[in-house]
């Protein structure tokens, strides 16, 4: 019976054919990224300073002694994070690195599975192999494994936080987020979502967990104050290398400070308007609101802050998954042009056109994040203006083709020739319905 399950079969439906095509591609891509590219490594090695810090911590030596004038990867975790990663230093460096790769790869796979469940899909759906293939084909997952950093575990913490937040299990949601903050505070801006949703208990564990770990780690560290006096000031500075934030590229290309601030303030305005529209009209559509808002907040924090690196984009997978929702803001080609900029593994460095290639390579992430925020702002603003013209703001700002016909002002939405094609479901809606045994609901 078991061997019969392995018998090759011919797909009879579109869903079966896509699954038969996508699963081998997804699995082999995942194995290649883990066992070939990650094990081979690269000149950029995020793991070496982390392992050395863990070893120094276990031997009660100084941890925070990095030379921030160099461009080599630096150890930037707080004492609480040092405490969490310290046990791996009981292994030799090579075995510890392999273990670190394996843990992060498993965390990414588990995060993908939980993301499917969050949006109402299962492993038998066509969405499962497509998501796995997309994740392990991306730059963010590939370089997380190749450089060997902890972003895979951070992604898992983010997905768990979102799931528990939606289930109103606030203390556990805060604990999941708190563990990530204890290592690196990249997800700390997501506390804004808990704040506007009135889930105050999240803050108890989100703040309490890193504080408790810090209280344990502080007396065990030889130089904990060096983190405060040396590392924290460095984290607040912008740098002109390996930095896709606006200020990073502005410094590299020598933009005038007034222009840099003007661009940042323009995006601040767009982000605030986008978040207001999401809160005002979508906060009851919980999955869409939390997943979309989290993407906007995190993208803005990297683009407008002091440091943004391309592989941070892994934390945007919940936002990208909203494309399966009928009211998603990503159902347009400019959004996916933006996603190409910060997700794809392509290098644009060119030996034939070195200057243009270097510009494209260095700017693709900045432009991708910028275009993503611009698209989300434009889609939400257009929906708002359309709903206001049609006098249906009290019904929300979803596109008219998603609303009952009685809600839509026919005079405003029907073309002069009398056709009603604008209210018919698009082919994309049909395709999404075929993604799994049951389509993902758009409201929670």
Automatic annotation (TrEMBL):
The chain crosses the membrane at residues 98-115, 145-166, 172-195, 202-220, 258-279, 286-304, 366-385. It comes from the Bacteria. The keyword Transferase applies. Pfam families: GT87. GO terms for molecular function: glycosyltransferase activity. Its EC number is 2.4.-.-. Keywords: Cell membrane, Glycosyltransferase, Membrane, Transferase, Transmembrane, Transmembrane helix. Residues 411-444 are annotated as: Disordered. It is a multi-pass membrane protein. It is found in: Cell membrane. The keyword RNA-binding does not apply. It is an enzyme of class 2 (transferase). Belongs to the glycosyltransferase 87 family. This is Glycosyltransferase family 87 protein. The lineage of its organism: Bacteria, Bacillati, Actinomycetota, Actinomycetes, Mycobacteriales.
């Amino acid at each position: 019976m078991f061997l019969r399950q392995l018998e090759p079969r011919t797909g009879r439906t579109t869903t079966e054919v896509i699954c038969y095509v996508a699963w081998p591609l997804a699995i082999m891509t995942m194995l290649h990224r883990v066992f070939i590219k990650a094990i081979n490594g690269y000149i950029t090695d995020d793991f070496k300073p982390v392992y050395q810090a863990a070893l120094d911590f276990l031997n009660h030596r100084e941890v925070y002694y990095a030379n921030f004038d160099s461009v080599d990867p630096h150890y930037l975790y707080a004492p609480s994070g040092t405490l969490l990663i310290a046990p791996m230093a009981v292994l030799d460096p090579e075995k510890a690195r392999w273990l670190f790769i394996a843990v992060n790869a498993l965390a990414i796979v588990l995060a993908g599975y939980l993301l499917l469940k969050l949006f109402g899909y299962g492993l038998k759906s066509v969405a499962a192999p497509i998501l796995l293939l997309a994740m392990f084909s991306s730059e963010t997952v590939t370089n997380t494994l190749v450089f060997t950093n902890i972003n895979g575990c951070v992604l898992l913490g983010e997905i768990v936080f979102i799931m528990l937040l939606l289930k109103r299990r606030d203390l556990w949601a805060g604990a999941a987020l708190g563990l990530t903050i204890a290592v690196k505070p990249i997800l700390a801006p997501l506390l804004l979502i808990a704040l506007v949703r009135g889930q105050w208990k999240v803050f108890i564990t989100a703040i309490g967990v890193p504080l408790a770990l810090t209280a344990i780690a502080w007396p065990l560290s030889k130089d904990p104050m060096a983190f405060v006096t040396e590392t924290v000031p460095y984290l607040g500075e912008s740098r002109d290398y390996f930095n896709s934030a606006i200020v990073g590229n502005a410094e590299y290309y020598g933009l005038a400070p007034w222009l840099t601030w003007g661009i940042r303030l323009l995006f601040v305005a767009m982000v605030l308007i986008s978040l207001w529209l999401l809160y005002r009209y979508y906060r009851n559509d919980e999955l869409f609101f939390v997943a979309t808002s989290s993407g906007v907040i995190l993208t803005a924090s990297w683009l407008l802050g002091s440091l943004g690196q391309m592989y941070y984009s892994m934390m945007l997978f919940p936002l990208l998954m909203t494309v399966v929702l009928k009211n998603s803001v990503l159902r347009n080609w400019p959004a996916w042009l933006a996603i190409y900029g910060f997700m794809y593994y392509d290098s644009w460095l060119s030996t034939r056109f070195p200057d243009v290639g270097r510009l494209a390579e260095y700017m693709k992430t900045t432009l991708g994040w910028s275009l993503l925020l611009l698209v989300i702002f434009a889609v939400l603003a257009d929906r708002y203006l359309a709903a206001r013209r049609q006098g249906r703001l009290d019904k929300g700002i979803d596109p008219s083709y998603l609303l009952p016909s009685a809600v839509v002002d026919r005079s405003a939405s029907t073309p002069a020739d009398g056709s009603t094609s604008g209210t018919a479901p698009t082919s994309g809606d049909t395709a999404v319905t075929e993604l799994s045994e049951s389509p993902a609901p758009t409201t929670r």
